[in-house]
Amino acid sequence: MADTRPNLSELDPVWSRITGEAEAAVTDEPLLSGLVHSSVLHHRSLGGALAYRIAVKLASPEMSEQILRELADEAFTKSPDLVAAARADLVAVFDRDPACLRLIQPLLYFKGFQAIQAYRVGHCLWTEGRRDLAYFFQMRISEAFGIDIHPAARIGRGIFIDHAHSIVIGETAVVGDNVSMLHSVTLGGTGKEHDDRHPKIENGVLIGAGAKVLGNITVGHCSRIAAGSVVLQDVPPMKTVAGVPAKIVGEAGCAQPSVMMDQILG
């Protein structure tokens, strides 16, 4: 019997564009046809492609690709919001990264995007009470991508992590929507306390490379943290902070720092 289900690529313009880019990539570089077919063209939806890609990247002798794919597929099926968040993340990378010329690039090549999607599956497991599996995801994400995100951390959508090396996000950290951060950012604690101890990053914040935001503090919406800064106190909305320790040095410079990605202190 013919499959009469709707083709999801026709209902999801992001996925439709990715499949079109995949077909062009196979034509342009036949040596990548195996990768492109297995990662994109063999799937009916973005969720299916993400589950496959996460499984391939995190598989190890300790946990097979098949089991990881089943876990990821289950998470994306149970929680459609995970796919919506991934779609927003893809668009964020495309809009904000001048090195990203096609939507297919983050899905295939960018470890920041891949790590965030794997974290989302681990967070889903955490909220279901499957803590050891969530910790396993955290460990493998760290080993595979060089990014350490506690599965209990809460991260919004439209997230862009550029270069994505040596990112650390602690257990009680909260990251809002449309946040951008560069490599070597830490959202950490300041000691051994067990309660709420990590930063709260509001919507639209830009965090420069190497910045350390420490403690249970709030970074206000649409603010900007300069590269290399150490932030130990609350940051008001729509301000720029810089230095060690960081101090307010001016306004944010624009309405949406995380979108403009302007890191020059004027």
Would you kindly provide a written description of the structure presented here, covering whatever features stand out?
It contains 10 helices and 15 strands. It has 266 residues and is of the alpha/beta class. The longest helix has 17 residues, at 80-96. The strands form 3 sheets. Strands 3-6-9-12-14-15 form a 6-stranded mixed sheet. The protein has a 5-stranded parallel sheet with strand order 1-4-7-10-13. It has a 4-stranded parallel sheet with strand order 2-5-8-11, with no helix packed on it.
| Low-pLDDT windows of residues | 1-9
For the sheet with most strands, the description reads: 6 strands, mixed
| Sequence of strands across the biggest β-sheet | 3-6-9-12-14-15
Percent strand equals: 5-15%
Number of alpha- plus pi-helical segments: 10
Distance between the amino and carboxyl termini: 65 Å
Structural class: alpha/beta
Helix and strand run = HHHHHHHHHEEEEEEEEEEEEEEEH
DSSP strand count: 15
Gross morphology is globular
The portion of residues assigned to helices is: 40-55%
What's the overall average pLDDT, rounded?
A: 94
Topology diagram in text:
Layout: H1 8-11, H2 13-28, H3 33-41, H4 46-58, H5 65-78, H6 80-96, H7 104-109, H8 111-127, H9 131-145, E1 147-149, E2 154-155, E3 160-161, E4 167-169, E5 174-175, E6 180-181, E7 186-188, E8 200-201, E9 206-207, E10 212-214, E11 218-219, E12 224-225, E13 230-231, E14 239-242, E15 247-251, H10 257-260
Parallel strand pairs: 1-4, 2-5, 3-6, 4-7, 5-8, 6-9, 7-10, 8-11, 9-12, 10-13, 12-14
Antiparallel strand pairs: 14-15
